[in-house]
Amino acid sequence: MKTYMSIIYFNTGIHERINVGLIMFNKKHCIVEIKQSKMDFVKIFKPETFELFEHAINSFKEYYSKEMPTLEQIRRYSIYNNGVFKLDSPSIIAIEFTGDNFNKFFDKHI
């Protein structure tokens, strides 16, 4: 079964980004995790937009904790340019979908 992942990030507006989270999914499982220290940094960096950003991220995480994403849904999110947060285009990763593998990948990239 194919496993996909997409990095969730805050676009700073100055050709930089802050990776704040990760979604990993396949047809049976989905994990969305956000790193609090990165959210704290966004709050310091852009306090005027943080509340909306945090609400959008939490809504995304809550929705996909109950619903399974499809590859097409995550692709659509990744090309939507006017969102409060951004997603990388989903990539296939050659690892088995497990909590341990998710944690290793999350620690390495977020």
Can you give the mean pLDDT?
91
Helix/strand-derived category reads alpha+beta
Largest sheet geometry = 5 strands, antiparallel
| Parts with pLDDT < 50 across at least 5 consecutive residues | none
* Cα end-to-end separation: 24 Å
**Count of individual helical segments:** 4
Number of strands: 5
The helix fraction, in percent, is 40-55%
Oligomerization state: single chain
The string of secondary-structure elements, in order, is EEEHHHEEH
Strand coverage percent: 25-35%
The radius of gyration computed from the alpha-carbon positions, rounded to a whole number of angstroms, is 13 Å
Shape: globular
Characterise this structure.
The protein is built from four helices and five strands. With about 110 residues, the protein is an alpha+beta fold. Strands 1, 2, 3, 4 and 5 form a five-stranded antiparallel β-sheet that branches. The radius of gyration is 13 Å and the shape is globular. The two termini are about 25 Å apart.
SSE topology:
Layout: E1 3-11, E2 17-25, E3 30-34, H1 36-45, H2 47-66, H3 71-79, E4 86-87, E5 91-93, H4 99-109
Antiparallel strand pairs: 1-2, 1-4, 1-5, 2-3
